[in-house]
Amino acid sequence: MPVTIKYLDECKQHGKPIVALTAWDYLFAQVLDQTGIDLILVGDSLAMAVLGYENTLPVTLDEMLHHAQAVRRGVKRAMVVFDLPFLSYQTSPQQALHSAGRALKEAGVQAVKLEGGYPAMAETVAQLVQVGIPVMGHLGLTPQSVHQLSGYRQQGTSPKSEERIMAEAIALEKAGAFAVVLEHIPANLALQITQKLTIPTLGIGAGSHCDGQILVTSDLLGLSDWHPSFAKPYTNLRKTITQAVQAFCSEVRNFQFPESKL
Ligand SMILES: Nc1nc(=O)c2c([nH]1)NC[C@@H]1CN(c3ccc(C(=O)N[C@@H](CCC(=O)O)C(=O)O)cc3)CN21
Ligand SMILES: CC(C)C(=O)C(=O)O
Ligand SMILES: [Mg+2]
């Protein structure tokens, strides 16, 4: 059974943690989906994780759509969410509608995600939801605002900032968002938001009290050359791949592969 908004709501109600990861291609999406995770995000973090950019700002809507199409082909069960890239939705609700519409029509994703809250984004979310496009919010550390935020610093550390993030979360829920990502905020603030909202919260660097967790897949696999402090590598694929390639090099250079058959 494919994962639906209703299923994610039930997870929250029953205290069953939601598991979410990012993917950028068919191969990884298929492997992840077959493990039974709930949600796959085509995250704009792919700008950094797989395209080698310094931040997420350069990646374009067309580039993201190309990745999303590949991801979609690999997924049968998980909900696929498309991360709207920088400046594909901030200009106006019309622009957001056009970009989100392309993600649903051209890549076949079930939902979109956008960064930010009240007041501008709440209005945009409301308009998308009104035409039947499910929206996931993203608050706290919003990487598309890296320059405005003076780096990838933890957010919600002052009473004023805490209050603002809580207000934005409430505004997103009111606007009709079906879930919200909370990134790099104190665990206690994430707990308060999770208790206050009826929609599920997905945490990344936001403690253990969210309704689910999301990580960048290359960080979980130990494939990235760098990962944020809050990520946990569950294996060291970088090392495994390096060793396999070195073994191949050695066998080719020593005429051991392929086996000689005359
Ligand atoms: N591979 C990868 N994993 C991610 O989780 C991720 C990305 N890329 N790219 C987009 C954003 C950027 N993220 C980040 C990046 C850096 C920190 C980090 O190291 N923060 C430091 C402070 C850095 C500073 O002050 O500039 C910290 O201790 O909070 C956190 C989240 C999370 N996202
Ligand atoms: C980490 C998640 C929430 C994200 O926005 C991304 O991968 O781009
Ligand atoms: Mg993102």
TrEMBL record:
Residue positions binding 3-methyl-2-oxobutanoate: 44-45, 83, 113
Pathway linked to the protein: Cofactor biosynthesis; (R)-pantothenate biosynthesis; (R)-pantoate from 3-methyl-2-oxobutanoate: step 1/2
Catalytic center residues: 183
GO molecular function annotation: 3-methyl-2-oxobutanoate hydroxymethyltransferase activity
Alphabetized UniProt keyword annotations: Cytoplasm, Magnesium, Metal-binding, Pantothenate biosynthesis, Transferase
Subcellular location: Cytoplasm
Cofactors: Mg(2+)
InterPro entries: Pantoate_hydroxy_MeTrfase, Pyrv/PenolPyrv_kinase-like_dom, Pyrv_kinase-like_dom_sf
Domain of life according to the entry: Bacteria
SUPFAM superfamilies cross-referenced by the UniProt entry: Phosphoenolpyruvate/pyruvate domain (SSF51621)
Oligomeric form and interacting partners: Homodecamer; pentamer of dimers.
HAMAP family: PanB (MF_00156)
Function: Catalyzes the reversible reaction in which hydroxymethyl group from 5,10-methylenetetrahydrofolate is transferred onto alpha-ketoisovalerate to form ketopantoate.
Name of the protein this chain belongs to: 3-methyl-2-oxobutanoate hydroxymethyltransferase
Originating species: Nostoc favosum CHAB5714
Gene it is expressed from: panB
